[in-house]
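Exercise 7. Predict the joint structure of the components listed below.
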Amino acid sequence: DIQMTQSPSSLSASVGDRVTITCRASQSISSYLNWYQQKPGKAPKLLIYAASSLQSGVPSRFSGSGSGTDFTLTISSLQPEDFATYYCQQSYSTLQSTFGGGTKVEIK
Amino acid sequence: EVQLVESGGGLVQPGGSLRLSCAASGFTVSSNYMSWVRQAPGKGLEWVSVIYSGGSTYYADSVKGRFTISRDNSKNTLYLQMNSLRAEDTAVYYCARVATNDAFDIWGQGTMVTVSS
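Solution:
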């Protein structure tokens, strides 16, 4: 199975900060990497697919980059509604998909 | 409106069975890949199973041989039959549509399964 490792597991930031979350795959997954946002008690929401494509309706302050094994989710200017947990997911192998452990973004 | 609505969760004893349902509206289940994802209390997301539009099915090692994913095309509904349940299966279970780009673009609201005596 492909293992996905996210870092950090949590971070504290202020409104307006630039935030970067990293995801590393245990083997090359090309650009088959997706990012999700989850708020407490809610279902995950797709933010970025194929490593860098913005899902319809998602604010442009969210961006993704990377390929192969190393990927990044960036929030250019953190907004109050962005405090949540973020997960990466590899879809290189749809018959054994895997998620990263999550990164909780908290208010400083 | 495109949406998924899960049902069927509840409290079950270890070794018991439960069937989850996921009713779709606004799109056709049988024309899409569909997945189940679960989240144990306070933990991260864990992929459980997928059914392809052609009918092939795949499972996480943690549930293989105990869970079965299926669909009813006439009801436009996805199912997850869960047998031999264990305490570690306790989680919120989400169904999700797999988009053509292989990302999970539509999610249900989730249904809670608690395995406890």
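Discussion. Residues 37 and 47 of chain B are 4 Å apart (CA to CA).
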